[in-house]
Amino acid sequence: MFFGLELSGLQMYWWLIVSLLGGLLVFMFFVQGGQTLIDSLSKNELEKSMLVNSLGRKWELGFTTLVMFGGACFAAFPLFYSTSFGGAYWAWLAILFCFILQAVSYEYRKKEGNVYGSKTYEIFLKINGFLGVFLIGIALSSFYSGSHFSLNEHNFVQWQSPFRGLELLLNPYNYLLALALVFLSRVLGASYFMNNILDEELKLRASKAVLVNALPFLLFFVAFLGWIFTKDAFFMAENNEIVMKPFGYFLSFISCYGLFAVLFLVGLVFVVLGLWLNIFIKARCGVWNLGIGVVLVVFALLASLGVQNAFYPSLSELQSSLSIKNASSSYYTLSVMAYVSLLVPFVLAYIFYVWRAMDRVKITKEEIANDHHTY
Amino acid sequence: MAELSSVDWSRAQFALTALYHFIFVPLTLGLSFILAIMETIYVKTSDEKWKKITQFWMALFAINFAIGVATGIIMEFEFGTNWANYSWFVGDIFGAPLAVEGIMAFFLEATFFAVMFFGWNKVSKGFHLLSTWCVAIGSNLSAFWILVANGWMQYPVGMAFNPDTARNEMQNFFEVALSPVAIAKFLHTIGSGFVIAALFVMGVSAWFLLKKRFISEAKKSLVVGASFGFVCSIFLFFSGDESAYRVTQTQPMKLAAMEGIYKGEHRAGLVPFGILNPNKTLGDNENVFLFGLEIPYALSILGNRDPNSFVPGIEDLVYGNSEKGVVPMQERIDNGKLALNALKNYQLAKENNDTKAMSEHRSILEKNFKDFGYGYFDDAKELVPPVALTFYSFHLMVALGSLFFLLFIVVLYLSMANNIEKFRKILWVCVFFVPLGFVAAEAGWIVAEVGRQPWAIQDLMPVGVAATNLGAVNVQISFWLFAVLFTALLVAELKIMLTYIKKGF
Fold it and tell me: Fewer CB within 10 Å, N or C, chain A?
């Protein structure tokens, strides 16, 4: 089948794709971050419209990446999909509510007869920006902290908490990643505005927002790294049994000849370079450096998590924990889907082409003031 | 009234999401092609009026598209949140089309959507037109993969059950993707979307003509709408016929409910209009209909392509008909229980490393697997879907579809004669038919989904087993949250649409 890969190779291949999608999704959070900055960066209604329209031309890509992330998890790791979504019911529904609100807000905000007034849709965008990202951070953090569930003989999930996922909020460690993501999204959003809008004043304000949000981001992110690299991992032993292993996540991170660590460091360099370009040089290209860096960092962390550990650990019954081995689809399905995944470079290529074609002419005050077809 | 269980609330929640989703999606499917056609005319003729017309309909498309996207994502994730057991049992097969949809279709749609709306002054005319076509193709390709997934639930093919993992695993992707049931379902569904969009364009244009505003733009749009609707109605008729044929072959119980047949017969007639007897119950001698018109032979032709063929009724399917080779449900229930028991014993034998017992139980499981889902039932009567809802929905859909076809012919004829504005009653009919298009589409989905109850996956998994193990109160709360939110968004959408339409081209 797919270039002679065995089942374990395909499981790894799909975990790497899911990790890449995770990286792209976090980068696309610039839309959510931007939504939380709309009020603080704008001084008047026209500027606010410039910011909203700048994001409004990209929000669907982020939304689609989220759908794709869900679809890929369903197709490649259906046991994760059924266990996490069915189990942590309220956590996922809360995330979904945040994204429903986003989907209509851009289109309806400025339309006549929108019933609830533009302010309501702006609040929706803020809910999506803050709460949506925060909750996704909490859900992702449970990949390290674990959840209370077990699986029965049919592999059907039995969630042990009546709060159905909301109990994840009771673990203070989960806040580290969640808050890091919220501030990172704001950094990315501000950086995106610097690139996409042709307005010197806005650029200066956005540059300041990059600085103000980069500091807490770095603080929470370093704390998150400190937590995961020093905690016991839900390690997958040779016989596929899950055991607790001290410093297991750090050991996985430096495994594979240090490949993940190198990717992580390269990503980190790009992130720092992006911040430097945005904060000190006020350059427009900062977002691209940040983007590449974020994708690499998230990819390295997620990929190293799945290689040797249970990526969805159970605190109730250790052996119910999900790894890429026991949660994956069959060999046939992974192979077929692997062929389909060859379309991804084409998809990325046309997205890149369209993005460039549309952004060749940057957003200006004149365009937004005179165009009747704006958000 | 009995209290609804968690499963019933999950069904209600999924039905609510699907019904709301399908208010917006069909219009998107059809309108995207109408936009592409209009913009092609603009590019070919360079007539600025066509650009104005395209932009007007495009804005309405965008208002509708946003809420379609919002409800669409919920449906994808609800498979996990509310149907977790289902997601594991068939995720190996079902997840694939959803992922392919994301890669192949959704990105295409989302990426070029931005160009279509904001690219008028940023990209070339040709690239803009290409983008509009990409959105149309992307939207409909997206529908294809979703309907492949749905078609598979109605007629599971291309897979085998793996007792080691207790799930179904895909064996042949092409059998899944090109299943005749899925193809028929796809063609019929997009056909209905095209007709709805045609009715929408016609209705709005007719309103402008009635108000004597934007006469030229409205007449041009009316011709495009009526022509598109006429062609698509013919397509809808043939795809509907094919769908009914596939239902007869693969889901005879659904067909029996659609037609209200309790006792099967040769040379079965079709009842185009009838009122069901509410006192009729399974196995009694009451008449099925209080009143009914019948077209002789028509159902045998529709269902089997043979006027003399036998079409089984609900009672044949429940109690069996040995003469016609119809196995009684009780026998299938017994087979299902054997299969379930064999799976349990297989797993026990595996734990004890008893390979001989494993092989024996596996053989029993494989022999009875086609009836696996029946093992969860005790009473054959539980396997009958709600007949009245299925019957009336089906007949409403067919009746409305026929009326739409007639309307397209009349409007097209009068438009060609260039005197449509004189026929004000016809124009009013066009206006009032806009919501009826949506009613017909929703009725179609009720037939498809209610008619296959109690199955989540035909013959293999009932909805009661497919649902997530959740307390009813959880789903009750989420149901009402969704109901309030969707309704609030629908109100906003309708108000924005109407306001925009009032402003005109």
Answer: N
Cα A320 to the center of its chain, rounded Å: 26
Q: Is the CB of residue B279 less than 8 Å from the CB of residue B286?
A: yes
* Nearest CB partner across the interface for B103, out of A116, A159, A347: A347
Nearest CB partner across the interface for B87, out of A74, A99, A347: A74
A189's CB contacts (< 8 A; 6+ apart) are A30, A31, A32, A33, A34, A35, A36, A37, A55, A129, A209
Cβ–Cβ of A64/B106 closer than 8 Å?
yes
A297-310 pLDDT, tens per residue?
A: 999 999 999 988 99
CB contact under 8 A, A82 and B499: no
Whether the CB of B405 is below 8 Å from some CB of chain A: the reply is no
The mean pLDDT values, 10 residues at a time, for chain B of 505 residues are: 77 94 92 94 94 93 88 88 93 90 89 89 92 95 93 94 93 94 95 96 96 92 94 95 94 95 92 91 88 90 92 94 92 96 95 94 96 95 94 96 96 89 94 96 95 95 93 94 95 94 90
| CA dist., res. A110 & res. A103, Å (int) | 14
Q: Closest approach of chain A CAs to the CA of B171, in angstroms?
A: 7
Question: Cβ separation of A357 and B127 shorter than 8 Å?
Answer: yes
How many angstroms separate the CA atoms of B259 and B273, rounded? 10
Interface test mutation site (partner B, options A74, A128, A372, max chain B beta carbons within 10 A): A74
Buried b (16+ CB within 10 A) or exposed e, A267-286: bbebbebbbebbbeeebbeb
ipTM of the complex: 0.92
Taking the Cβ of residue A356 and every Cβ of chain B, the question of whether any pair is shorter than 8 Å is answered with no
Q: Write out the H or E segment, with its range, that includes residue B161.
A: strand B159-162
Chain A residues in contact with B122 by the CB 8 A cut-off are 357-358, 360-361
Full-model pTM: 0.92
- Report the alpha-carbon distance of residue B224 to residue B237 in Å, rounded: 20
Quick one: CA dihedral B27, B30, B33, B35, positive or negative?
negative
Q: Do B73 and A97 touch (CB under 8 A)?
A: no
Chain B CB within 8 Å of residue A13 CB: no
Count of C-beta atoms within a 10 Å radius of residue A156: 22
Q: Which residues have a Cβ under 8 Å from the Cβ of A87 and sit 6 or more positions away? A: A147, A149, A157, A159, A164, A165, B84, B468
Digit-coded pLDDT (tens) for A200-242: 999 999 999 999 999 999 999 999 999 999 999 999 998 889 9
